[in-house]
Give the backbone structure.
Amino acid sequence: MKALCVYCGSSSGNRPEYTEAATAFGTRLAREGIALVYGGGKVGLMGTVADAVLAAGGRVIGVIPRQLVEKEVAHVGLTELHVVETMHQRKTRMYELADAFVALPGGFGTMDEMFEMLTWAQLGLHAYPCAFLDTLGFYKGLGASMDHMVAEGFVKQVQRDQVWFGDSIDAMFDWMKSYESTYTPKWITKDAV
């Protein structure tokens, strides 16, 4: 793994533990020699994780749409900052630059970005690990929702099993180092349509 894409909030949330976890995660990325790819902002958890990587001597690659440069206050101290025209270009460029995806706590944007990567994995468009760092049980309900999707026949168990949830940064990195994708085509066939 050379570069890991992190999706997370452009705000810091209401609890200091979110910021502490983002700092610890960024520090660990730098220590592992893995570049951070993220949304390019200097605010919220986005800025926290980027600052932690930089403070520990790591590489940070930001990707931000031009319309958000001022709103998200683009981080100007990064190793690289790519300014793109649209959100779609942002997501595509972040995907192109990374070989693993992690969601820290965040809102709708975090979910949009991470679920696109989960969908692309489900469709066989990539074979990279996808993980949710579940600080303070932030993603407990989401994991349960994914289990419900399996129980109701909308997601295959093998696809659900490819998504990691946990609150331990060490366990997440151990999982990623041994990750092997087991692509399973969706059950919809030409005969079914």
In short: The mean pLDDT is 93.
